[in-house]
Amino acid sequence: MSAIHIVRDYPHPPRKVWRAVTDPELIPLWTATGAGARPEGFATTVGTTFTFVAKPRPGWSGVVVCEVLEVREPSLLRYSWQDESGGEVTQVAYRLEPHGSGTRFSYDHTGFTGAGGFFMAKILGIVRTTMLTKGLPAVLNDLDGQGDLRPESPLSAKRP
Known about the structure:
Elements: E1 2-10, H1 14-22, H2 27-31, E2 38-40, E3 49-53, E4 63-72, E5 76-83, E6 90-99, E7 102-112, H3 114-141
Antiparallel strand pairs: 1-7, 2-3, 3-4, 4-5, 5-6, 6-7
């Protein structure tokens, strides 16, 4: 079985990181460095079904169907992940923990099987690494102390 495991440390408190990774208006700002997915119908409530909608690519509609499986604010979000055309159901987990004066963020995407799953994990791993290395830090740096996007931020113009 293949998996994606990425750990990043951010110099921001867990509540701020939690807001950036769970606010439907902020998520597309940091995922823009990858496939640019925006969540539709997302809420941090167990049982919520939602979709991530990204730019379609050859062989992919750009839509992923998800269900929130577990939430412990501000330390854990776990949800299922399945291409809208079917296929295997995998799971994504965000784990946040205080680390020094900031936050350690762990991203895990598990459940990939077979040769196709191996290649999917490799491709998605590259995209997720970019999002968590470039996209998320840019959003975090443009949030004020309350976790709101600063009006003067260049990201403000990109909000949905």
